[in-house]
Design goal:
By secondary structure, this protein is an alpha+beta fold. The protein has two domains: 3-190, no CATH class; 224-443, PPM-type phosphatase domain (Phosphatase 2c, domain 1), CATH 3.60.40. Helix content is 56%, strand content 15%. It has helices at residues 3-14, 16-38, 48-70, 76-86, 88-100, 105-113, 125-139, 141-145, 150-222, 270-286, 293-308, 383-386, 397-406, 412-427, and strands at residues 233-240, 248-255, 258-266, 315-323, 328-334, 340-343, 346-349, 368-371, 377-381, 436-443. A five-stranded antiparallel β-sheet has the order 1-10-9-6-7. Strands 2-3-4-5-8 form a five-stranded antiparallel β-sheet. α5 (88-100) packs antiparallel against α6 (105-113) and α6 (105-113) packs parallel to α9 (150-222). It is rod-shaped and about 135 Å long. It starts with a helix and ends with a strand.
């Protein structure tokens, strides 16, 4: 016998359905043999030929059915149904024994009614009832021959009733098991679909995160170089986005006779705000040649009203033009935190806070003109600085002014970095809740 054949035979003999089948054969055949050996009255009625035929048929059908089961020819439901059908001669033999051995009729009836118990929840009710009807039919001649005791007839009726309810329960169990299997299969399918959707979402999220990182780097590259802009002006800038991309930015453009400066804050955060910062920067460059800060803001407002179309995003901005040769600067403010001028130990906020950009195409702004001298420091910033809150919900605005004065003697780069360190210390354990932009300018 080959290894494959031995493996098949092993599975035929050891699978749970086969074991239940042959266990029943062993118990029933053993009981009949005990009656034949030890009952002096009825033992002689046990005929060897019918008994041997019973054993051979029972074991032969068991092996055949088990072979088909392990070969995948049947599901458990169809296997148990088929097992009852092909075992109907066994029911006839039980009926024959009930006639021949009346005192043991109840035993044979219990065997007959419980034959479907190993397949409880798998066997369909009609096959179990067919089996019982065959058992009843094969036993009924005892009524006419007078060899079946009357009390056993009551046992037969009781067992029929019991079998009916057992088969009814088996049917319900089978339906519930089938529904449960379908639900489990659907749950597994849903789980697979959910896992697949999660993988796709994770991949999309990873791609989006990578794209945001690229966008953040590109936005950082949009910030202007600040070295060598003008021989009498020294610039230092810092930008800290709350997310990968943000809505704050500053720009410095060298123009004829001086430098144009803009700091702006787009409402909101993220991708939409970063796109509008690009629009705002483009609008600033479009109108950089206008000779006043107010005129630049008005031109930018016209463009942004067209771009934004009265949507949900608006822009606050502060614009200034520095003319070192004339020792003056003029500036205009569109709803932005006012710039600061530090001269020696004095700190002044510059200008008013008029209407923001992108709301009213007819809006105009006032132009303010100031003198500037060597040693002046101008600081432009966004509200992410002044509106930072501490752990006890205090705002940084008052401390910001104090730190600007306390650090005024520092070099511009050291000044800005020290301000940001103090801001982080002030914020404590809380996260950054807004974009932060700082632009420091020293007149040298």
């Amino acid at each position: 016998m080959s290894g494959r054949s031995r493996s098949t035979l092993f599975r035929v003999l050891t699978n749970p359905a086969s074991l239940a089948y042959f266990r029943g054969l062993g118990i029933n055949a053993g009981t009949i043999l005990l009656i034949a050996l030890f009952d002096p009255v009825y033992g002689t009625r046990v005929q060897l030929v019918p008994f041997a035929a019973f054993v051979l048929y029972y074991s032969g059908t068991g092996l055949y059915l088990s072979y088909r089961l392990v070969r995948g020819k049947h599901t458990l439901e169809s296997w148990f149904d088929l097992a009852l059908i092909v075992s109907l001669p066994v029911a006839v033999y039980y009926g024959y024994l009930s006639i021949e051995l009346p005192p043991y009729a109840v035993v044979f009836w219990i065997w007959g009614t419980t034959v479907g118990m190993p397949g409880f929840g798998f066997i369909r009710r009609r096959f179990w009832l067919i089996w019982m009807l065959v058992l009843f039919g094969s036993s009924s001649p005892g009524f006419f021959l007078g060899t079946l005791e009357p009390r056993n007839a009551l046992w037969m009726v009781w067992m029929l009733i019991l079998t009916y309810y057992m088969t009814e329960t088996s049917n319900h169990l089978k339906k519930n098991r089938r529904n449960l299997s379908q639900n489990l299969a659907q749950t597994k399918k849903n789980r697979r679909d959910l896992d697949q959707a999660h993988r796709k979402l994770r991949a999309a999220s990873d791609r989006f995160t990578d794209e945001l990182k690229i966008a953040g780097k590109m936005q950082q590259q949009l910030l202007p170089p600040l070295i060598g802009v003008h021989s009498r002006l020294e610039f230092v800038g810092r930008y800290l986005a709350m997310e990968n991309v943000g809505g704050d930015f500053y720009d410095v453009i060298k123009i004829e006779g001086g430098v144009a400066v803009l700091i702006a804050d787009v409402t909101g955060h993220g991708v939409a705000a970063s796109l509008i910062t690009t629009m705002t920067k483009a609008a600033f460059h479009n109108h950089k040649l206008k000779r006043s800060a107010a005129a630049i803001l008005k031109g930018m407002n016209t463009d942004l009203c067209q771009y934004l179309g009265g949507g949900q995003h608006f822009v606050s901005a502060a614009c200034a033009i520095f003319e070192p040769d004339l020792n003056r600067m003029h500036f205009a403010n569109a709803g932005h935190p006012p710039p600061i001028r530090i001269r020696q130990s004095n700190l002044n906020y510059l200008g008013d806070e008029s209407l923001i950009l992108g709301v009213d195409v007819g809006q105009s702004w006032s132009d303010h003109v100031l003198d500037m001298v060597k040693g002046d420091r101008f600081l432009f910033y966004t509200d992410g600085v002044t509106e930072t809150r501490s752990d006890d919900f205090q705002m940084y605005e008052d401390r910001f002014k104090e730190q600007c004065l306390a650090l005024r003697a520092n070099h511009p780069e050291q000044f800005v970095d020290a301000l940001l360190r103090d801001l982080t210390l002030f914020r404590g354990s809380g996260p950054q809740t807004d974009d932060i932009a700082l632009l420091c300018l020293d007149v040298v």
